[in-house]
Design brief:
- It is built from 14 helices and 18 strands.
- Strands 7, 8, 9, 10, 11, 12, 13, 14, 15, 16, 17 and 18 form a 12-stranded mixed sheet that branches.
- The longest helix is centred in the last third of the chain and has 20 residues.
Length: about 450
């Protein structure tokens, strides 16, 4: 039998995502009630500018006093989609204190203070759900937290930011430069006026912290995640990737060490083989590749941002939390029993693609190879090319390109697997060689 008293929902924020949450709650009210087992009622909407007209929302529900809304005492679930650290953190903890569960899409707050928020939820016997915080509409957190709860996850490798994937995909498919691709992403609404959080990897790093914590049952904070942006990726990098049968993606990578004693979390651009499923993720889409002992390899794919897709994830959590409330129960909370240490980036082992600008004269290759050997980094392949007067690549020297003593050449080295610390030491030593004019780029090679 359906309970007649409605479950009351307070919505904090009514922007792109919040307005979609409100719209779906209104237009699908009957379906939501049937799925939950009771009516779900939008009881209040907190916004910064309450005088603005919001289509489909009763003005009587709108308030600028978010604190008073979450303190009402009759609110069952608070949906937080305002983002940022404060006042979101205080509002969420206040909601717990006043008997409400919380559904959030706030990746930055969860990556920074997830442990404290989970502790507050547990203390007051409330739920904290946040499927929408990572990868938009893609069901990912719940499968990691529930469907794979009996398995051992070893690696999570993913494209978790649609803006950066659109830019890199455009550079790859059209040969556009970074700025040109960014301008197009901005014009189409994929990039914010200030794209720093996306292109410098902050957004993806927050998501990586959340994913690593859930996958490895370990508390991983944003500060634990190594981060590199993608603003230095060039057309030359894509040309090198193409020659290797690869493309370039900004990846969030969370790994369990081979001995199982620690974990790492990182975000950076990387070359991945065209044969890897993530290589075929185009446009503003997201995809996450999960590797576990029993289930093997799984991939989750779909739209990773936007009002409607993100609202879909929010509403999924809302239904789950409302069901729990009707049953007098709570869902799974934080699982951090493993308490594994988070290793520094220097311990990460992978392959590398290094492009050097060197003097075009005999003996350079031998000097460079010696530096690699001294630091325990094994070379897989080397490609050396001369440069024409305009700075572009000329014919490969090995193939008989005309060498002009004292000119410049480009030396591309691809290594076997080595630690990041060993590679960093190698690069530092290379920069001290008189014959090395500069290190043009360093790109990790993943997904092999």
């Amino acid at each position: 039998m359906m309970r007649t008293r409605p479950l009351k929902v307070a919505l904090l924020g009514c922007g792109v995502v919040g307005s979609e949450v409100a719209r779906i709650m209104t237009t699908h009210a009957d379906d939501l009630a049937a799925r939950v087992g009771a009516p779900v009622e939008l009881a209040g909407v907190a916004v910064r500018r309450p005088d603005r007209v919001r289509q489909g929302i009763d003005p009587a529900l709108v308030t600028a006093d978010a604190t008073a809304l979450v303190k009402r005492g009759d609110i069952d679930v608070v949906v937080e989609v305002i983002g940022g650290i404060e006042p979101a953190r205080t509002l969420i903890t206040t909601a717990f204190e006043h008997g409400a569960s919380v559904v959030s899409a706030n990746k930055a707050l969860l990556a920074q203070d997830g442990a404290a928020l989970h502790a507050a939820a547990e203390e007051h016997g409330e739920d904290l759900y946040y499927e929408a915080a990572v990868a938009g509409a893609i069901p990912l957190i719940r499968p990691l937290r529930e469907s794979l709860a009996g398995d051992k996850v070893n690696r999570v490798l993913g494209i978790v930011n649609g803006t950066t994937n659109f830019i890199l995909d455009k550079m790859d498919s059209t040969g556009a430069g970074y700025q040109e691709a960014l301008d197009e992403a901005t014009a189409l609404g994929y990039a914010e006026a200030d794209p720093t959080a996306d292109v410098e990897g902050f957004d993806a790093a927050a998501k990586a912290a959340i994913l690593a914590g859930i996958a490895f049952h370990t508390r991983v904070r944003l500060d634990d995640v190594y981060r590199e942006g993608m603003t230095e990726v060039t057309a030359a990098d894509f040309a090198s990737a193409t020659r290797m049968g690869c493309t370039i993606k900004l990846l969030a990578i969370c790994e369990r060490a081979e001995d199982g004693g620690s974990v790492t979390a990182r975000v950076h651009p990387a070359m991945i083989p065209l044969s890897h499923p993530l290589a075929s993720v185009h446009g503003a889409y997201n995809a996450v590749f999960v590797e576990s002992d029993a289930a093997g390899q799984l991939m989750f794919y779909g739209p990773g941002a936007g009002g409607a897709p993100t609202a879909s994830a929010v509403l999924g959590d809302l239904v789950a939390v409302c069901r729990n409330r009707l049953n007098g129960a709570t869902g799974p909370g934080e699982s951090a029993y493993a308490a594994l240490p988070v290793s520094p980036m220097g311990d990460v082992v992978t392959r590398y693609h290094i492009s050097l600008d060197v003097a075009d004269k005999p003996g350079v290759l031998a000097q460079v190879a010696t530096v690699f050997a001294e630091h325990g980094v094994s070379i897989d392949t080397v490609r050396q090319q001369g440069r024409n007067q305009s700075g572009g690549d000329a014919v490969a020297i090995e193939q008989g390109g005309g060498r002009r003593e004292g000119g410049e050449a480009s030396l591309v080295v691809v290594t076997h697997r080595a630690s990041d610390a060993s590679l960093s030491g190698t690069v530092e030593a290379l920069r001290k060689l008189d014959t090395v004019r500069g290190v043009a780029s360093i790109m990790r090679v993943e997904g092999e």
